[in-house]
Design goal:
Aspartate Aminotransferase, domain 2, Aspartate Aminotransferase, domain 1, 2 domains, seven-stranded mixed sheet, three-stranded antiparallel sheet, binds pyridoxal-5'-phosphate
């Protein structure tokens, strides 16, 4: 396709790879040479770098972002009979992790301004849950599209009720809240290095962050089959969930570009917002936080979204609906309880959101073309 007919990729992993391909080849070759494919030296190095980057006291890598959530919940012994509050507008993994452990995902509505868990809905859900005789243990605050949840408000409500705060930062690695980086927010924070996330590897990967020494020790055991002080000493039932050494080697190279990429994503977002906020609801990032811009998502209100997408597509502009169905309405999850005040905002968003191309290497001309075409709708 010509440059003109395809002005933009939704996410561009090729442009980034071109920049560092020779370094990646060397990094991968080093792993092939030393042969420590599992928990090799690059894993330790990358974990040190994650600690430096996030300022979290502990950073432990694992196999993927879903396992990261599962490991966090297992650290707190969450399982059958326990309630875990989940925003109903999120990716399935946020609810899948507690459900797999036999816990009960309890759906809470989100705020239209943040796409994240709504504090009033959360308060109501706690009341409902207690009235129903259920046992609330944890809230998963998802940083949807890269924007941190309002963690101070959520933590205050949660901690006053003895509820643990798990930040699902799968989309927000690199973002910050009141000058604190994602990783140091909440009781435990998790992230994902799935290729399309802000910091992605070339396969699956994830990490867990905490400032609590006891949690860190337990996470380390759980990710390695529940090991004790010796490898063949199994003290608890755990998982096999490790980041491959090759993926760590790749992530070390990608992390070197990451600060710059965050700036570039932010520039792209600012240009979109300046041009599009006259006509559409654009993402709202308060000045006390920064987004990692995993997605740039508009709310189209009553516009015909299918037609909108079709028009963009005919001009060669990709767009994606994240997420077309609230989790609380998904077939596999609709039997779980939800807040009595309803999840109307989640339902509204799933009908009216649209994400535009977003990556650090979106050229000015491509972005201008996207803006021009979007404004025609
Ligand atoms: C991607 C994602 C996950 C899961 O990460 P994987 O590495 O794909 O397992 C969890 N939560 C959210 C919000 C995500 O976007």
């Amino acid at each position: 396709m010509s440059e003109y007919s395809e002005p933009a990729k939704f996410i561009d992993l090729v442009a980034q790879q071109k920049l560092i391909r020779s370094k990646l080849d060397i990094a991968i070759k080093n792993v092939l040479d030393h042969g420590q494919y599992i928990m090799g030296p690059e894993v330790k190095t990358f974990e040190e770098q994650l600690k430096n980057f996030t300022k979290a006291k502990h950073a432990l890598t694992c196999a993927n972002g879903t396992d990261a959530l599962t490991l966090a919940l297992m650290t707190w012994g969450i399982g059958r009979g326990d309630v875990v509050f989940i925003p109903s507008f999120t990716y399935v993994a946020s609810a899948e992790a507690p459900a797999q452990l036999g816990a009960t995902p309890y759906f809470v509505d989100v705020s239209k301004d943040s796409f994240n868990i709504d504090s009033e809905s959360f308060k109501q859900a706690i009341i409902d849950c207690r009235n129903e005789g259920l046992n609330p243990k944890c809230v998963i605050a998802v940083d949807l599209f890269g924007r941190p949840a309002d963690i101070d408000v959520i933590s205050k409500i949660a901690h006053s009720e003895n509820i643990k705060v798990l930040v699902d930062g799968a989309q927000s690695f690199g973002a910050s809240f009141r000058n604190t980086k994602v990783g140091s927010l909440g009781d435990i924070t998790t992230t994902s290095f799935f290729p399309a996330k802000p910091l992605g590897c070339y396969g699956d990967g994830g990490a867990i962050f905490t400032n609590n020494d006891d949690y860190a020790q337990k996470i380390n055991s759980l990710r390695l089959h529940g090991k004790g002080s010796e490898k063949y000493d199994n003290v608890i039932v755990g998982l096999n969930s490790r980041l491959d050494t090759i993926q760590a080697a790749i992530l070390i190279e990608k992390l070197k570009l990451f600060e710059e990429e965050l700036k570039l994503r932010n520039n792209v977002a600012n240009i979109y917002t300046e041009a599009l906020s006259v006509k559409y609801l654009t993402p709202n990032i308060p000045d006390y936080m920064s987004s990692a811009w995993a997605q740039y998502t508009l709310i189209l209100n009553d516009k015909d979204r299918d037609l909108f997408q079709k028009n963009l597509k005919s001009s060669g502009i990709p767009s994606v609906v994240y997420y077309p169905i609230p989790l609380s309405s998904q077939k596999g999850y609709s039997h779980y309880p939800r807040v009595s005040s309803g999840v109307e905002v989640s339902a509204m968003l799933s009908k009216s959101v649209l994400s535009l191309p977003m990556h650090p290497y979106l050229s000015e001309s491509a972005q201008n073309k996207i803006i021009e075409e979007v404004l025609k709708n």
